Amino acid sequence: MDVIFKIIETTGFANLAVGNLIMMAIGGVAIFLAIVKKYEPLLLLPIGFGVLMGNIPYTSGLPLGVYDEGSVFSIIYKGVTSGLFPPLIFLGIGSLTDFSSLISSPKSVLLGAAAQIGIFGTYLGALFLGFTNAEAASIGIIGGADGPTSIFLSSQLAPQLLGPIAIAAYSYMALVPVIQPPLMKLLTNDKERKIRMNPPRMVTKKEKILFPIIVAVLAALIAPGALSLVGMLMLGNLLKESGVTDRLAKSAGSVLLDVCTILLSFAVGCSTQADVFLTSKSLGIFALGLLSFMVATIGGLLFAKLMNLFLKNKINPLIGAAGVSAVPDSARVVQHFALHYDKDNHLLMHAMAPNVAGVIGSAVAAGVFIAIFR
Amino acid sequence: MDVIFKIIETTGFANLAVGNLIMMAIGGVAIFLAIVKKYEPLLLLPIGFGVLMGNIPYTSGLPLGVYDEGSVFSIIYKGVTSGLFPPLIFLGIGSLTDFSSLISSPKSVLLGAAAQIGIFGTYLGALFLGFTNAEAASIGIIGGADGPTSIFLSSQLAPQLLGPIAIAAYSYMALVPVIQPPLMKLLTNDKERKIRMNPPRMVTKKEKILFPIIVAVLAALIAPGALSLVGMLMLGNLLKESGVTDRLAKSAGSVLLDVCTILLSFAVGCSTQADVFLTSKSLGIFALGLLSFMVATIGGLLFAKLMNLFLKNKINPLIGAAGVSAVPDSARVVQHFALHYDKDNHLLMHAMAPNVAGVIGSAVAAGVFIAIFR
Amino acid sequence: MDVIFKIIETTGFANLAVGNLIMMAIGGVAIFLAIVKKYEPLLLLPIGFGVLMGNIPYTSGLPLGVYDEGSVFSIIYKGVTSGLFPPLIFLGIGSLTDFSSLISSPKSVLLGAAAQIGIFGTYLGALFLGFTNAEAASIGIIGGADGPTSIFLSSQLAPQLLGPIAIAAYSYMALVPVIQPPLMKLLTNDKERKIRMNPPRMVTKKEKILFPIIVAVLAALIAPGALSLVGMLMLGNLLKESGVTDRLAKSAGSVLLDVCTILLSFAVGCSTQADVFLTSKSLGIFALGLLSFMVATIGGLLFAKLMNLFLKNKINPLIGAAGVSAVPDSARVVQHFALHYDKDNHLLMHAMAPNVAGVIGSAVAAGVFIAIFR
Amino acid sequence: MLENVIANNGFSTALSGMLIVFSGLVLIALAIYFFNLISQTTKKIEQNGEKHNEAEESGPALAFMGDEKIPEDELVAISVAIELYSRLHFEPLQSELTFLHGELTNSGWKTGIKYGQRQSIQR
Amino acid sequence: MLENVIANNGFSTALSGMLIVFSGLVLIALAIYFFNLISQTTKKIEQNGEKHNEAEESGPALAFMGDEKIPEDELVAISVAIELYSRLHFEPLQSELTFLHGELTNSGWKTGIKYGQRQSIQR
Amino acid sequence: MLENVIANNGFSTALSGMLIVFSGLVLIALAIYFFNLISQTTKKIEQNGEKHNEAEESGPALAFMGDEKIPEDELVAISVAIELYSRLHFEPLQSELTFLHGELTNSGWKTGIKYGQRQSIQR
Ligand code: NA
Ligand code: NA
Ligand code: NA
């Protein structure tokens, strides 16, 4: 009889706390958004499922969760906390990304820099709320709108906040189509929104090959901390563009990327155990994260308008909003927003330039933080 | 001249023991069964080759085998002993499994539970033979007829028995078409074997999506120890059924599954060094393993007959035998056996329901053992 | 203001040394050779990019490079230094290699043995220059003309020389079409170059299946140290030839091979930080490596001529040069060279036999060194 | 050796283990059962309410033809077509050609970025 | 809480961080810009020098059609063809049939070895 | 520096190493040689015994045509067909349509389970 009681005590039903139920509801919402709304399904689905699994209670001592030394989930989670998965994901993303639009329009690079003001503004905001330097930097990076970059920086500087930062980053990336349009409406006038831009020029193969090499070297020289992220991103891109390593690029951009994405997302989800996640700090992170996205969007829009003061060929300031990255969502948002005002004004390719520049920009920003705070 | 002798002493010929030759013969048989008889080739082939490689003798001190700290094979073997490979394999299997038949026939789930009596019966038998609790549980799980589950449980409870348990589990799974039919013949009559069942109803996409989520949560709540296995199995299935993460499901079900299968099978084969493997314990494990499969089959058959006493729409008791899992072998055995008596009675899809339920059932059983004995 | 200075100090520009610039130029040359000359692009491209990234200077203390405990690059590099990647790469290569030509012409196997004199000759040369036994063995293996074998042996015996040995091995493999033809011209006469060989006989499926099993057992028995390399190579080949594990062979030969190749090459590149790489030892290694290739080629050519003294059906001595391996480059060099003198004399398939035998031969040689010096 | 069984609480462990396995699977069976029930009820209510577009409901599920017979050759042809189609469209490509409508001067473009982003909506 | 910002050198960190980000991306922009410049200059010089084969230069890049309109159906057909082609020829195959020219008695052969070796030259 | 060579037993190591490499490869060569011998002997005995179905024996190996010449175009067409076929049938699919014979009401079904199970028998 004792054994039966012992066994019943080990079931999750006996240990279920309110916090776990709240978190499981959140996991359910993430899965719902992923499947029904199709918001970032490749990330939100495994994250949501991970939240469910991470909040199954069990008698402590069993090696099951991500925080239990030696458990299977902890081994997978080590791929996150060691910072290994994000650069591998960047390797895959690099092998899928086409930087042509950026190469053909160097001035758009600056828009990708301007949007990073969201990162540094939020860093200040987080300091203001009492977070430490390392924590504030990790929170600020949410405004970079790059999941892997956020997770990488958190794993290096503030592993204890990795869960909420990752969830916040991916949630707001999924909500880009909700967050950005009102700001676009507020900060541009009708005339600006209708500005048409010249079609981008053709980019030669030689330029495409030199681009990743030059960018990797320059970015890593200016911010060595960005070495892991920018290095891998550009290695992937070089594998793709070189034309002599197609099979490597293909493997990096398919299975390697997919497997790392599954394991990273699931493990991040699992790390949101209620007792670790449901804190006032998490609330602060979510508030600051939203702020971060908004400041970044505003920064991009206003800087584009500023640039127009000096340019002969005006750029459409809307593409500044794409500088936050969230590739290619925010570029799509720009495209749709512009089409609303001029049904033949296709800004997608023009918006892709600041969009991918934003990826580089926030990786550099992460590098700066690593250099100072590690 | 000394160096020459020294070198000759290092060759395997100089150290070859009878035990190694016996094991190499066993490895050869496994390869033969895999290639010529096509019994579970994806597993028996690398296992058999691993047995050959694991029984090459070498002067101790060289870091070559799975038990030598720092050797390449020991690094691969760590994926087995840490329990990492089985859940990853389950992730892949989940992304390839169609649970429709189970969803359309909830009562078949009970057959998947009944067959687990093989596990607990053998656990008692192993205790009777003097094994410890943890060892007995690991031996019993052979009756679950799921390779990854057996290996996972052994790695957690009785790593010293991992080799023989894994080999026994896969051998008997390969021999399902030999072991099960006599028992089917013995325990059913002609009329029962000819029972036709209604075609399964159509299952909607919504049900298929909700199924993995519900199963994972319920199974993990009732037996948290099943978290790693059931969680990953259902994550894989959700990736497949959601319809929004096809590329993730595809990668999990192809390369990830394949690579983990190769490495796990090969490393398990390598772990059967004669001096570790050729013990009376191994003999006991093989005897108990056979018992386990037989009890499980009998349990499934009899429970199906028991259910028929209460059901209006009789089920064909043969499908009870499929409850042992060994997916989809035992379901195929049922199909062929039934066709023998009525050439138009296709039971395959009906047998798939207890078949996949058996996978969940033995993962839950493994979870129970982990909760008690860890 | 202090912070700004601190940040500027962290940039790579502030720490750039002449050595780094030299190494980056070398990396650039490797990339150029890979893309423009198409010399071993799958290896030289990631290596070259790695050299660039590995020579970005950063303030010490930051966990960024392969030698910094805990950095992402160091985790990847551990796959090299632990010796894990080379056997996995061999698994993939095995699943892509067709040994038919070798099976149909057993006497060619000896040519693959003869070329290994390059290894042992260079080993002596390295001893002569003052290297230790373990270092000399690792340098000698460059003459085996197999990247993974060289890296594996260095990782086991002389990890401190891994970078220059790997770079030397791959560089000379890329330069096979430059190194070998002069020696061929020197050591054969016109009549010998025009010898035609009988078309290889058909090889049955049964032979192809038995081949990897027999080779693995024999090679591992004679040189247990070759277990990891030959074992994995032949496992891959068995997966391919068995005909029952196609999906495993395919995964091993595509994504697993590609991912390991990317990570190994990139990490090896990164390990060439100027302060570690630019030493007189490296110069010695490069000189000895070239010697090694030349001795190996000469050994193969002369041994083929020696064999012809005893054979009725003369072999074309040119195929002896293919015994160095560098699969399939040196076989192609032989084909082109022979076509120059007789435009209908196709030696490719005949040269493939010593070519793949050379792979086995140098793995055995590596095994011998491991057995003696570990 | 029965002492070993008793000393280790063998029988109660086996019994309660079996109990847990059954309760777990009964719970799952009930969940599926109730879920089916709800789904059927909902469907009935919907059917009574209004005749709505059925094609939409069926989704990607395979329609079973009931008594109608399909020539085997056609089945093979259909399955090959489906295989080819899925091969072409569901496998991740390295880069992809996309052609937008509208003024060609402004819109003929190519993008390789496909990662992780709601791509399913657009198609 | 402003003390926390000041105590941590928040403002100067943020400022100099933003500065680094901008300098980095400006450097990259300049590199691209100068690279473009060089490329264009080179092209002009080449064009003045001699009329060379343009097809060779364009490489695998997609030619944009300017004002000429292509029927949408054709675009779809072309893109499907390109997909199929790349699927057939750019995906790594496990083994591959190759047929050499010359005397067939001597040359009909098959090889599976394709790894890592300048294969692109031959094709 | 010859002392270093001698101090490290360089010559005997090199010699015996070369010896091992040769013995290993000679063993392999002998194994292949004897295996060939056995195979040929067996074949002769079989041929003398009875004329059996040759198609069965040849298996998936490629038959070489000897002197008969095949037009190059046909070779290309055949190899493309083989590529396409293997691409379709040997690559792991996520799920697969299978149609059973017999009463359609009872047998039209679809399964996605393909893992690790003697699947090759059925096809
Ligand atoms: Na960004
Ligand atoms: Na089972
Ligand atoms: Na070699």
Helices, strands, pairings?
The complex is a heterohexamer, with three copies of chain A (374 residues) and three copies of chain D (123 residues).
Chain A: H1 2-10, H2 18-35, H3 41-54, H4 72-81, H5 85-94, H6 100-103, H7 108-114, H8 117-128, H9 133-140, H10 147-157, H11 162-174, H12 176-187, H13 190-193, H14 205-222, H15 227-241, H16 246-270, H17 274-277, H18 280-308, H19 329-341, H20 348-373
Chain D: H1 2-7, H2 10-49, H3 54-58, H4 72-89, E1 96-99, H5 104-107, E2 108-111, H6 119-122
Antiparallel strand pairs in D: 1-2
The structure holds sodium ion (NA) (3 copies).
Low-pLDDT residue spans of chain D: 52-68, 85-123
Distance between the termini of chain A: 55 Å
| DSSP helical segment count of chain D | 6
Largest sheet of chain A: none
- Gross geometry of chain A: globular
Number of strands of chain D: 2
Shape assignment of chain D: rod-shaped
Give the percentage of residues in beta strands of chain D. 5-15%
What percentage of the residues of chain A does DSSP assign to strands (E)? under 5%
Structural class of chain D: mainly alpha
How much helicity do the residues of chain A have?
Answer: over 70%
* Topology pattern of chain A, helix = H, strand = E: HHHHHHHHHHHHHHHHHHHH
In this structure, how is the largest beta sheet of chain D organized? 2 strands, antiparallel
Average the pLDDT over all residues of chain A and give the rounded result.
92
From the alpha carbons, calculate the radius of gyration of chain A and give it in angstroms.
21 Å
Instruction: Write the H/E string of chain D, N to C.
Output: HHHHEHEH
Which oligomerization state do the chains in this entry correspond to? heterohexamer
Structural class of chain A: mainly alpha
The share of residues in helices of chain D is: 55-70%
Low-confidence region ranges of chain A: none
